[in-house]
UniProtKB/TrEMBL annotation, chain A:
Keyword set, alphabetical order: ATP-binding, Cell membrane, Membrane, Nucleotide-binding, Transport
Protein name: ABC transporter ATP-binding protein
Main location: membrane
Membrane topology label: Peripheral membrane protein
Domain of life: Bacteria
Automatic annotation (TrEMBL), chain B:
This protein's GO CC annotations: plasma membrane
Compartments in which it is found: Cell membrane
Family: Belongs to the binding-protein-dependent transport system permease family.
GO biological process assignments: transmembrane transport
Membrane-spanning parts: 12-32, 101-121, 133-164, 184-203, 242-264, 284-306
ABC transmembrane type-1 domain segment(s): 97-303
Membrane protein topology class: Multi-pass membrane protein
Pfam families: BPD_transp_1, BPD_transp_1_N
Name of this protein: Peptide ABC transporter integral membrane protein
Keywords in alphabetical order: Cell membrane, Membrane, Transmembrane, Transmembrane helix, Transport
UniProt KW Transport keyword: yes
UniProt cross-references to SUPFAM superfamilies, sorted A to Z: MetI-like
Main location as per UniProt: membrane
């Protein structure tokens, strides 16, 4: 396999060359062009990041380079992998290339592996697709690969099924499959999007190390500019199926020339970080890119101190939640206490499984805690009658993560927004209700006429604003927002967050804002609570807690979040790896 | 859940189901108008004779008392004695059940062996002529009543083309059934037809769903050909929902046997049940229903166990 490596490692020859690539999808109603005239090259040992928002065609390019597009795609132009054109190749030719010369890492580690086949066997399959080796030898190589991608106890783990592994470990297995035959080109399609930041950092480190060891060229498809800054040598920006700008990572991220690239970068929320050793880098980071919003959220200025006082709208005191019973019991929340004061925004941050969504559900009264008290607007939820609880709940609005699933597809937008009115304000006439619905749609900057449309006809950002309108139609005193923008593109995220901020100034509701995105919370929340494994790690004003954290965990969390500046990110990475190495030697000593 | 505790729980559940089934059936049978006496003693019987028969059989006692008597008998392994055939119900079932099992198990096996590859083939060739043709045939096979299909089979393959006998071999032992294997062909085909139709649909749907899963793309990205992906990954994943359905299909199989045995004069449980129903032979009817209920419960239990073997997530309580 090393011979194979040397063949392709001549620096001059690109391992992937796309020339005027075009992809058109035939749907029932129309011909939809997804990729138009894309030309790019990836050379051995370099990483090209293909960036853009959803629908820009970046994943289609990646699949086209693998010959994995669905049957309704028509491909024109040329896509050559190690000199072989993929576009006209038959199945036999493609399967000889796939997994050997070019391989792929996918976005969703939860579904990318066959749930019924042991992971070792899935890796050996890739090896034996291309090499005539015995099952035993392939199994030994699979164990080696698992060790290389950092799976502990690889001999034992090879016999595990995918469901027995964590998301990060599954992604390592997918990577092991991808590098099993030392490919010359690795295509990674959003390889870390489904993972927590700390796991993301580990996976990126792993990919970088593997690429450096073998001189593999990498095509990295991502929407995350922090990941780009962390990993890429060159960047190509896609917009509506076309390549609008490409260049070195420093050029594109720091000195973008195309208007779209500038807008895209401006919309990325930037994590403000304190770098004690490197003040210059920190300054470079906080220096606003043209069009970036200032680091101080504007709404903080108008807020009077009086708005912060009075009875907290929400208070959790020593709340514990246990799911399941006996040996399988999971402590989702363990002695959690926090307050949300009138008009203020509290950010709840943490990794998956930290209990942040459970905390939001407790606040909504959807989960009754096993211990502790929850007070809503000064009333203890456990000691109030059902009817009173219902009245209290009318004072909370909620926006959830998934813009598709959170609106009933069989109702019109108007009916969706009117539903809380039907429940809590039954005295209203149909006409008054309609009037209120149209008013609130206008408030979230949607046209009144949208009330008669179906949610399915709306874009993701519009749908999230409909959810927001539904949450605000009862003029709540508390808005609970659980990852409200995580499924949205950055530019859309920015506009949705702006709407929430403006309305909060206008209507004065408090907000419990749950997010895994530290940069968003830093810009949006006044105070922040960091959750880890069901406990509050620390809480305090956002400016202090996220700039000068007191606990190691928060420091690690912050260090793992990549910032969209290649120069700063490189310094941060070096520092993080140094800290990790130091921690390891300390732990070993 | 560990396997022993899973089994204990499921067996207890199964027992509860069987008891409930006997209560329901007992109640329904005794709610029927007429009662067995008139049927057995004939239209000439006097009211006195009927009253005496009812008294002898305990039929004049309150229903719950009758049920408790029955249950007590049952616990002693006694299913009662047939009113009309003058033989213990347990012996009747002992004689007939193996023959019905031969018929249903053969039908089910042949049905599945055809349905599974057919469904996968359809999924791979979805929306092509082959798929449409098989789909049409499936719907015809599924919507044709078994007795009608059986009659056509007899007409074509027994009368017009004298290939197979239209009547099953008679006799008390299992060996008698196998003495003329050709006579089994038409009953088995009649029983298998709807099985093929139903399960090829399930298999087609399951395969289609799995073909669009991410892991298929991962396998192809690793250099596997389409056929290998089908064989190594899609097949097993598609089989799990089909196996689950199989357990619930047991009563349908027995229901089919009822008609098929009537039609081909095949001396199994179905025929026994048929004649007992016509004669209001309560002990026989109850015995048959009990056996079918047991078979259903055992069928679903087996299906669950097979699923635990195929899919490790079931055992871990993750699916």
């Amino acid at each position: 396999m090393t011979a194979h490596r040397k063949d392709t490692a001549r620096p001059a020859e690109p391992i992937l060359a796309l020339d005027d690539l075009g992809v058109v999808f035939t749907t029932e109603s129309a011909q939809v062009p997804a990729v138009r005239g894309v030309s790019l090259e990836v050379r051995p040992g370099e990483t090209l990041a293909l960036v853009g928002e959803s629908g820009s065609g970046k994943s289609t390019v990646a699949l086209a380079a693998m010959g994995l597009l669905p049957g309704n795609a028509r491909v024109t132009g040329r896509a050559a992998v190690a000199g072989t054109d993929i576009v006209g190749a038959d199945e036999a030719g493609l399967s000889r290339l796939r997994g050997r010369t070019v391989s792929m890492v996918f976005q969703e580690p939860a579904t990318a592996l066959d749930p019924l086949t042991r992971i070792g066997k899935q890796i050996t399959e890739v090896i034996r697709n291309h090499h005539d080796v015995s099952a035993r030898e392939a199994a030994a190589r699979a164990v080696d690969l698992l060790r290389r991608v950092g799976i502990p106890e690889p001999e034992r783990r090879a016999a595990a099924y995918p469901f027995q592994l964590s998301g990060g470990q599954r992604q390592r297995v997918v990577i092991a499959m991808a590098i099993a035959n030392d490919p010359a080109l690795l295509i990674a399609d959003e390889p870390t999007t489904a993972l927590d930041v700390t796991v993301q950092a580990e996976i990126l480190d792993l990919l970088r190390r593997l690429a450096a060891e073998t001189g593999t060229g990498v095509l990295l498809v991502t929407h995350n500019m922090g990941v780009v800054a962390d990993f890429a040598d060159r960047v190509a920006v896609m917009y509506q199926g076309r390549l609008v700008e490409s260049g070195t990572v420093e050029d594109v991220l720091l000195r973008p020339t195309h208007d779209y690239t500038r807008r895209l970068l401006a919309a990325v929320p930037r994590l403000e970080v304190a770098l004690p050793d490197d003040g210059a880098a920190a300054n470079a980071l906080t220096k606003p890119v043209p069009g970036t919003r200032t680091t101080e959220p504007p709404r903080e200025k108008g807020r009077t101190p009086a708005a912060q006082e009075g009875t907290p709208v929400l208070a959790l005191d020593d709340v514990s939640v246990v799911f399941g019973r006996g040996r399988r019991a999971v402590r989702a929340l363990d002695g959690v206490s926090f307050l949300v004061r009138p008009g203020e925004t509290l950010g709840l941050v943490g990794e998956s499984g930290s209990g942040k969504s459970t905390a939001a559900r407790v606040a909504l009264g959807l989960i009754t805690p096993n211990a502790g008290t929850v007070s809503l607007f000064g009333t203890d939820l456990a000691h109030s009658r059902a009817r009173a609880r219902r009245r209290l709940r009318a004072g909370i609005g909620v926006v959830l993560q998934d813009p598709v699933a959170s609106l009933d597809a069989r109702m019109t937008v108007g009916e969706c927004v009117a539903e809380p009115l039907r429940v809590h304000r039954r005295e209203l006439s149909a006409r008054d209700r309609r009037g209120l619905v149209e008013d609130v749609l206008e408030r979230v900057r949607l046209p009144r006429a949208l009330a008669r449309r179906a949610p399915g006809e709306l874009s993701g950002g519009q749908r999230q604003r409909v959810s927001l309108a539904r949450a605000l139609v009862l003029e709540p005193r508390l808005l609970v927002a659980d990852e409200p923008t995580s499924a949205l593109d950055v530019s859309v995220q920015e506009s949705v967050l702006e709407v929430i901020t403006e309305l909060q100034d206008e209507l004065g509701f408090a907000c419990l804002f749950v997010s895994h995105d530290l940069a968003v919370v830093q810009h949006f929340a006044r105070r922040v609570a960091v959750l880890r494994g069901g406990r509050i790690e620390e809480q305090g004003p956002t400016g202090e807690t996220l700039l000068h954290p007191e606990t190691d965990y928060t420091r690690r969390l912050l260090a793992a979040a990549p910032v969209p500046d290649p120069v700063v990110q490189r310094a941060r990475r070096t520092e993080r790896l140094a800290a990790l190495a130091a921690g390891r030697t300390e732990g070993g000593a | 859940m560990s396997t022993p505790s899973f089994l204990i729980r499921r067996v207890l559940q199964a027992l509860a189901v069987v008891v409930i089934v006997t209560i329901v059936v007992f109640g329904l049978l005794h709610a029927l108008p007429g009662g067995p006496a008139r049927g057995i003693l004939g239209p000439q019987a006097t009211a006195q004779q009927i009253a005496r028969f009812n008294h002898e059989q305990g039929l004049d006692k309150p229903l719950p008392v009758q049920y408790l008597y029955y249950l007590n008998q049952l616990l002693h392994g006694d299913l009662g004695t047939s009113y009309t055939l003058n033989a213990p119900v347990s012996r009747l079932i002992e004689e007939r059940l193996p023959k019905t099992l031969v018929l249903t198990v053969l039908s089910a096996l042949i049905g599945l062996l055809l349905a599974i590859p057919l469904g996968m083939w359809q999924a791979v060739r979805r929306n092509r002529p082959v798929d449409y043709v098989i789909t049409t045939l499936s719907f015809i096979a599924y919507s044709t009543p078994v007795y009608f299909l059986g009659l056509i089979l007899v007409l074509v393959f027994s009368q017009v083309l004298p290939w197979f006998p239209s009547q099953a071999p008679q006799g008390d032992s299992l060996a008698d059934v196998f003495s003329e294997p050709r006579a089994l062909v038409l009953p088995v085909v009649a029983g298998a037809a709807s099985m093929v139709a139903v399960f090829s649909r399930y298999m087609r749907a399951a395969t289609l769903e799995n073909l669009s899963e991410d892991y298929v793309r991962t396998a192809r990205a690793g250099g596997a050909r389409s056929r290998a992906v089908l064989r190594k990954h899609v097949f097993r994943n598609s089989l799990t929902p089909v196996v689950a359905m199989l357990g619930y299909y047991v009563p349908v199989l027995f229901g089919g046997a009822l008609v098929v045995e009537q039609l081909f004069n095949y001396p199994g449980m179905g025929l026994l049940f048929w004649s007992a129903a016509q004669a209001s032979d309560y002990p026989v009817l109850l015995g048959c229903v009990l056996v079918i209920a047991l078979a259903t419960v055992v069928g679903t239990l087996l299906a669950d166990i097979v699923q635990r073997v195929i899919d490790p997530r079931v055992k871990a309580g993750r699916a």
